[in-house]
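The data layer described in this paper is built around a simple, fixed record for each protein. Such a record has a labelled line for the sequence and another for the backbone structure tokens. For reference, a complete record is included directly beneath this paragraph.
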Amino acid sequence: MAQKPMVEAVDRALALLDALAGAGPAGASLAELAEQADVNKSTAYRALSTLRLRGFADQDDASGFYRLGPAAYELGDRSYSPQNLAQALHPALVALSHAAEELVHLGVLSGDQILYVNKVEPERAIRVWSSVGQLVPVASTSMGRALLAARNVPDEMLGGYLKNLPENRPVSPERLRMSVHHARERGYAVELGENETDVACIGTAIMWGTLAVAALSITALAARMTDARQRELAGLIVREVGPLLPQGLSLLPSLCGTAGR
């Protein structure tokens, strides 16, 4: 027999939250949610009223349907804030930098730019100007391209990420499209001297379920970033970063498949 919940009211509220998540943006009626959560309608109504007061549920005035409220979404955002991600992933970045003997960055999406939130330098220095808190264009960086690929941004929307590129660092729409498509296929994106002359990066996304919440990159001199080296670095990411990811975070399956070939 399944163990009886210690606090049944909490269990019912969690069941309703799960039902709300399953209903999606369109929401669901009180009767549908009560059935999904296996509670009677009066109990569901009281619990949903409390969830509404706390912002975890919302109700459409016209249809009366309930849906997840903003507080429910904010829980995940707060848990995987840039500061929390930087701290939680730091051991993995250190291990990767040591194994690759290259510079490693962690970044998150901020509009049409990537925000650096962590950086680990190797013992052998590479002349790259970067710092935590720096913003770089999505379109010209491997981390940005990896996030566009992992988030399945449609081709027709990619052009919006080309607007704020520096004049001396142009990226054509076709180049960005091809880079994003290649990233989807192999699990990592590459930029070769497109963000900084003579410098190249390989980047991949960090996933929370089906959502890409961050990206990491390995930076090296462009002369060292051969096709063989790219595949080698992809394998290092899988071997070094994968086992050190906090519970709930993962690498892209396509990256793991590429590293295994």
